[in-house]
Design a protein that fits this description.
The chain has 434 residues and is mainly α. The protein has one domain. 72% of the residues lie in helices and 0% in strands. Helix 2 packs parallel to helix 16, helix 4 packs parallel to helix 14 and helix 7 runs antiparallel to helix 8. The chain is globular and about 70 Å long.
Length: 434
């Protein structure tokens, strides 16, 4: 290994440690890592072929995908205020009162439809759904203990995956940093996400009989207050404008290959229109474009570039490719997805885990002479698909609010996890043949 490789690896490790152990606020470690790149390049890089200067280290802030997603975060902040979310809550309450397996299936579908708008894995959305279920009275026909776990995980699986801009942007930046062709449409990426959602539906239906029947933890005053909170805070005209701009923006991003640069700025134009219409405030606008997840994306791009430009990614890719030479494309994608999601599960670092394994997966495929698109798509998506350990975020809330035993939790989550990753990997290799 060269000195540049060692320094790139050291910066990566420092960044990941800061992320995984919450030493710095989310979004800050990658910016710090970018500063370290400049320092290392200035001190040691006089003879390097690729210089780690300021433009190199902060190139993420001029990346088109980062700005597209940053502006889209503003549009999403507006969508959260519409009555669409309130309608999801009303539909859930009606189905719970009916009870039975068919109501369970319908509830899964309703929550997944809501995830299509709110964005899979949206913190605000899964807190809303969990708070709602937690305040429902115990019903023998459909116990809340049989609802909280599957509905909680359903918030991470959009049935109509139109809101995949964030993960799509991560995939594109990973491919670009590895020097791989990234001419892939958001529609194709959405189909891979849909395959994952189908896998979840299968797992949820099979797992219904393994879910326990008991009362869950009592709702707190805060949860009850959240359930009663009025979501609609805008006029009918503002809501119509918000919905139209949301769908227009999503459609434009899905056809970005045809629209070119225009697709990257249309979310920004929509965000400014929403601010002018009074749907979002200037503070909400700023919070959207400088959201921690946006800073995370912008900061990790130069770190990923440094790993690739130093030759470290290719070095690791060669080693893994040698070990995986006799494996089928499905097995390669499946194993990298398992590694990524497991790392994210135990560390709580979704984005960090993706940026560890995605470049290696891409490099491995390139060394094997096959298309890296399937591996890139599956690995990026898998970073948010662990959850079989209740150690962070959504799974931790489900475990705590549902009053589950660990054995009860694992009976549902471990089979669900394996079925989802298998469906994701299969979908990826079918949509992006290797």
């Amino acid at each position: 290994m060269t000195l540049q490789m060692i320094l790139a690896l050291a910066v990566l490790v420092i960044m990941l440690v800061l992320i995984m152990f919450d030493i710095m606020p989310f979004g800050a470690p990658p910016i710090f890592a970018s500063c370290l790149l400049v320092a290392c390049g200035t001190i040691f890089g006089a003879n390097w072929e690729v210089q780690w200067d300021v433009p190199y280290a902060f190139a993420g802030f001029t990346n088109a995908s980062v700005w597209m997603i940053a502006f889209f975060m503003v549009v999403m902040a507006a969508v959260q205020k519409t009555s669409l979310i309130a309608k999801v809550k009303d539909a859930m309450s009606d189905l719970v009162n009916k009870g039975g397996f068919m109501s369970y299936v319908a509830l899964i579908i309703v929550v997944m439809l809501g995830a299509s708008l709110a964005g899979g894995g949206s913190t605000g959305y899964y807190v809303l759904i969990l708070a709602l279920v937690a305040t429902l009275p115990y019903n023998k026909k459909l116990p809340t203990s049989k609802l909280l776990m599957p509905l909680g995980f359903a918030t991470n699986h959009p049935l109509i995956p139109i809101n995949v801009a964030l993960q799509y942007g991560v995939m594109v930046t990973v491919l670009e940093s590895a020097g791989a062709a990234s001419d892939v449409s958001m529609v194709s990426f959405s189909l891979v996400t849909f395959a994952l959602s189908v896998g979840f539906i299968v797992a949820a239906l099979v797992g219904f009989k393994f879910l326990p029947d008991h009362e869950i933890a009592a709702a707190t005053d805060e949860q009850k207050a959240r359930r009663e909170e009025e979501i609609v805070t805008m006029s009918k005209g503002q809501e119509t404008l918000t919905v139209v701009l949301f769908f227009a923006t999503v459609v434009c991003m899905m056809f970005m290959n045809a629209l070119g640069n225009l697709a990257y700025v249309l979310p920004g134009i929509a965000a400014f229109i929403l601010m002018l219409a009074g749907v979002v405030t200037w503070k909400e606008f700023r919070d959207g474009i400088f959201a921690p997840v946006v800073l995370m994306m912008a900061g990790v791009i130069p770190v990923a570039n440094a790993l690739a430009d130093s030759g470290l990614t290719a070095l690791i890719g060669n080693a893994v490719a040698g070990a995986a030479g006799g494996m089928s494309p499905f097995v390669i994608v499946f194993l990298f997805s398992i590694l990524t999601s497991t790392c994210a599960t135990f560390t709580g670092s979704n984005m960090g885990s993706v940026y560890i394994f995605a470049p290696i997966a891409v490099a491995t495929c390139m060394q094997l002479g096959v298309s890296p698109l399937a591996a890139a798509a599956a690995v990026v998506i898998s970073g948010w698909q662990g959850g079989y350990m209740p150690v962070d975020g959504l799974p931790a809330m489900i475990f705590g609010m549902g009053n589950y035993k660990l054995s009860e939790f694992w009976k549902f989550t471990i089979p669900m996890y394996l079925i989802r990753i298998a469906a994701l990997s299969l979908g990826a290799v079918l949509i992006f043949p290797m």
